[in-house]
C-alpha cells in the first residue's frame, strides 16, 4: 500500500524525487507517512483536502482486501 501512495503522489507533484513514503505496520493497522516537498504540499492536499481524501479512500479500498486498517498521514 505504501507503493500505491508513492505512485499516486509522484504523479501529482512537481518534484517526484522528493516524495518519501514510510510504512509503520502494526498488528491490525498500517500507518503510511507521506512526505513531499513544501511547495508540493498543496498539490497533494488539494482544495479543501479533496485530493488527500481521495488518496485515503483508494488506499482504504486496497486495505480492505487484507482486513487491515490504514491511516495515511501527510507530513512535512
From TrEMBL:
It is found in: Cytoplasm. One of its GO terms (cellular component) is cytoplasm. Coiled coil: none annotated. Keywords: Cell shape, Cell wall biogenesis/degradation, Chaperone, Cytoplasm, RNA-binding. One of its GO terms (biological process) is regulation of cell shape. The keyword Chaperone applies. The keyword DNA repair does not apply. GO terms for molecular function: RNA binding. InterPro entries: KH_dom-like_a/b, KH_sf_prok-type, KhpA. Its main location: cytoplasm. Belongs to the KhpA RNA-binding protein family. Forms a complex with KhpB. This is RNA-binding protein KhpA.
